[in-house]
Design a protein that fits this description.
Helix content is 73%, strand content 0%. By secondary structure, the chain is mainly α. The mean pLDDT is 85. The protein is globular and about 90 Å long. The protein is built from 10 helices and no strands. Helix 2 (50-61) packs across helix 4, helix 2 packs across helix 7 and helix 7 (154-180) packs across helix 9. It has helices at 2-34, 50-61, 66-78, 84-107, 117-130, 133-145, 154-180, 190-211, 222-254, 264-316. The longest helix has 53 residues, at 264-316.
Length: 334
């Protein structure tokens, strides 16, 4: 009996260790991808996928994942500098931000299915825009205090940092949560597949055209997100948001289209406004449609139960259960 319990504990510890190792590896690899678009000092980028990965890891496995997040943040930043103490402070900020975002979301009853309007709003405003203020402020402040950045560079660098961390949550977290529940659809009509491919391809083409045109055409992306949300809910909206955001971030990094001729702070304002709009639109609509579909299913199930109950009641009733009508007796007395 003792050996069985010990073996069970070892299996549990091994599974936990594998999860933590996977989180560290995913954090490190995604950080390398995000750094391909760095704009400030080789380490501040407008797209930081590790924040989304860290937040999803906390949602799925709880606060015990924070050491893996801290280790991943340290391994990434130790190679970027500037020195060990600022690196430790930046790693702390990169850990505390998703942890605080997770605690805020848990406080308001966030559900990882993202099938309610309040969940979409919470993820955008608490998880992304609010929670990532911590890492951006602490990280940029540390770089200025260590002399790696000048005081005049604080706000431009802060805007890039906040944009990157917020985009990591807005873009990566919904995509991972949608992929977690994704199942290979069986018996799906061919036209449905054609529609999905046209939706993904159209989003990529229109976003690329809008972000490389001298005209202000970014609004053309929104109809594709509405289409994705209504037809496929989160499973379709999340990939389209990912595609649109990555294309826009690349255009912002090279300064093309609507980002041309803008200073760093203005680029980040435009990029944050665009990515925030597409994410909010897609998440809110997909949550509203999912909530409506769930309500309709509940109404249909209630109607079916009521119909069954009425059928059973009608079958159990017999004529002798009803009061019999007997003719009144009349006494005829003379």
């Amino acid at each position: 009996m003792i050996d069985v319990a010990r073996s069970e504990r070892l299996r549990r510890y091994a599974a936990e260790g594998l999860r933590m190792a996977a989180v560290v590896a995913a954090y490190y690899v995604s950080a390398k991808i995000g750094l391909q678009q760095q704009l400030v000092r080789g380490q501040i980028t407008p797209f930081w996928p590790p924040t989304g990965i860290a937040l999803v890891a906390l949602m799925l496995w709880g606060l015990r994942m924070w050491p893996a997040i801290a280790l991943g943040a340290f391994l990434v930043n130790v190679m970027l500098g500037p020195s060990i103490l600022p690196v430790l402070a930046i790693a702390v900020g990169n850990t505390v931000a998703p942890v605080c975002a997770y605690l805020l979301l848990r406080r308001v009853g966030f559900r990882i299915e993202l099938d309610r309007l309040q969940d979409a709003l919470s993820l955008v405003f608490l998880g992304a825009l609010g929670g990532m203020l911590i890492s951006a402020t602490l990280g940029t402040g540390v770089l200025v205090a260590s002399g790696a950045l000048t005081a005049q560079d604080f706000w431009p660098a802060w805007s890039v940092w906040w944009t990157g961390d917020a985009m990591g949550v807005l873009v990566i977290a919904p995509f991972l949560l949608a992929a977690r529940n994704a199942r290979w659809p069986r018996g799906t009509p061919v036209l449905r597949w054609v529609e999905a491919l046209a939706l993904v391809g159209g989003t990529a083409v229109v976003t690329a055209a809008a972000t490389h045109s001298s005209l202000d055409l970014l609004f053309l992306v929104v109809p594709f997100l509405i289409w994705a949300a209504f037809r496929f809910q989160l499973a379709g909206a999340a990939p389209c948001v990912l595609i649109a955001s990555v294309v826009a971030i690349d255009a912002g990094a090279v300064g093309s289209g609507p980002f041309s001729g803008q200073d760093l702070l203005a680029k980040m304002v435009i990029l944050q406004a665009f990515n925030g709009t597409v994410s909010l639109t897609a998440l809110l609509l997909s949550a509203m449609v999912a909530e409506r579909n769930r309500t309709l299913r509940e109404i249909e199930e209630a109607c079916e139960r009521l119909t069954e109950a009425l059928s059973r009641l009608a079958s159990d009733e017999t004529l002798d259960q009803w009061p019999s009508s007997r003719p009144k007796r009349h006494d005829h007395r003379e």
